[in-house]
Amino acid sequence: MNPYAIAVKRSAQKDLGRLPRRVQDQLSEAIADLAVEPRPPGVAKIEGRVDRYRVRVGDYRIVFDIDDDARLVTVTALGHRSAIYRRLSLIVFVIRSPMRQGLIRIVTAHTGCDGRRIAGHR
């Protein structure tokens, strides 16, 4: 069986570069292993997304998409378990003002696991 190709988004590459060297090595090895087995033991599907999964590596998580037709694994995010899911739940709203033509306001909000907006975030 041919291995899957691995693509790492630029934002995930930057996140990896900010981590301690030992953690970088562990995560890089786990990412390389995804080419051989894109759904290793312990992988979990992320709710609300069609082909998004996460795998645990110690206290860190690797979030990735799998395209079986193209045989491609795309690493979309990685980070410490305390922060990774907060980043994934960030919703960006773009609001166009009906009164002023061309004015766009960007509002961000964090959502909880149930999809409700968390108070205090804008």
Keywords:
122 residues, alpha+beta, YaeB-like fold, 2 domains, two-stranded antiparallel ribbon, 3 helices, 35% strand, disordered C terminus
Question: How would you concisely characterize the structure shown here?
Answer:
The chain is of the alpha+beta class.
Structure description:
- The chain has 122 residues and is of the alpha+beta class.
- The chain has 2 domains: 5-88, RelE-like (YaeB-like fold); 89-122, no CATH class.
- It has 3 helices and 7 strands; from the N terminus they run βααββββαββ.
- Strands 1-5-4-3-2 form a 5-stranded mixed beta sheet.
- Strand 3 and strand 4 form a beta hairpin.
- The longest helix has 16 residues, at 21-36.
- It is globular and about 35 Å long.
- Mean pLDDT is 78; it is low at 90-97 and 103-122.
Low-confidence stretches: 90-97, 103-122
Number of domains: 2
- Span of the ends, CA to CA: 47 Å
Structure classification: alpha+beta
> Radius of gyration over alpha carbons?
17 Å
What layout of secondary structure does this protein have?
Blueprint: E1 5-8, H1 10-17, H2 21-36, E2 44-45, E3 52-57, E4 60-67, E5 72-80, H3 81-88, E6 90-96, E7 104-110
